[in-house]
Design goal:
Blueprint (H helix, E strand, L loop, with lengths): L1 H11 L4 H31 L10 H10 L2 E4 L4 E3 L27 E4 L2 E4 L1 H11 L5 E8 L10 E2 L9 E3 L4 E7 L5 E8 L7 H4 L20 H7 L1 H9 L16 H9 L6
Antiparallel strand pairs: 1-2, 3-4, 4-7, 5-6, 5-8, 8-9
């Protein structure tokens, strides 16, 4: 084709150089399109076949069939019941890499409402890196009373401790210092402390009501939950959990989505 155009231009000047350049660009774009289409349809599915070997459990299959063509089917809202592993997207679903946790032990840990210094880990760290802990302190992580829902601040540091210390706060930052009073280690801990004593909440058995536990995972769609958290979903279904089908976020972050779910109003209301 290009040779034909060139000959016509040379013999009769039927086309200008701009016409030839334009035709070359069109041909080049077309070739790229064909190659990319071929790559998508044949090479990629075979390359990632071992990574996209996903299958539904029997419980999930039954749940999907029972849902029908719509997850939500009302006069005002219709949400289609899409297949998370449809053939059009399955070859893009890739098995994530395993998370390699660091093998170094934490220099501090929490147990039974107490914050401990792990001297076994401290001594190993000293042998590897030459860092010896002289003492540690902790600070509670606080939410300002009149601040935004994602604001936080640190309290004043606690007294020095070398073995363990009682902690009454839920979230803390721990920092350990060397003999020169320089920070050589930082960690964050969640401390589980009962808000009430058992006697304060004990009620007669005949008046007890069922407990309701809400489990949510931020920044994960229902589709990806089914694709990548199959074991979690299977456990939840075996426990008789009720899936919030059709539930959608209305804003960013946790608090502003929980308020509408629990109260039926926006957080500003």
């Amino acid at each position: 084709m290009l040779f034909f155009l060139y000959k016509r231009m040379k013999s009769k000047c039927f086309f200008t150089r701009k016409h030839v350049l334009f035709c070359c660009i069109v041909c080049f774009v077309y070739v790229l399109y064909v190659l990319s289409h071929h790559l998508q349809e044949s090479i990629l599915p075979r390359s990632f076949h071992h990574l996209s070997d996903f299958s539904y459990g029997e419980d999930v299959m039954n749940l999907t069939k029972m849902a029908g063509p719509f997850l939500v089917d009302t006069p005002y809202c219709k949400i289609p019941n899409l297949d998370p592993l449809d053939i059009s997207v399955k070859h893009w679903v890739r098995q994530p890499m395993r998370v390699a946790c660091p093998r170094d032990m934490s220099l501090t840990y929490v147990f039974g409402g107490k914050l401990f210094v792990n001297w076994t880990a401290v001594n190993i760290s000293y042998l590897k890196e030459g860092k010896m802990v002289a003492y540690c302190r902790y600070q509670s992580i606080q939410h300002p009373e009149n601040g935004k829902h994602n604001d936080y601040s640190y309290s004043v540091e606690s007294d020095k401790f070398r073995e363990w210390v009682n902690v009454s706060k839920e979230f803390i930052r721990t920092q350990c210092y060397n003999a020169s009073n320089n920070v050589i280690y930082t960690n964050f801990h969640y401390v589980m402390n009962p808000l009430y004593s058992k006697s304060d909440v004990e009620v007669p058995r005949e008046t007890r009501t069922p407990n309701v536990l809400l489990v949510g995972v931020d920044s994960v769609s229902r589709m990806n939950y089914i694709r990548y958290m199959k074991k979690t979903q299977q456990v939840m279904l075996k426990l008789g959990a009720l899936e919030f089908v059709g539930y959608n976020k209305v804003a960013d972050n946790t608090f502003v989505n929980l308020v509408p779910l629990l109260a039926g109003k926006f957080a500003e209301e």
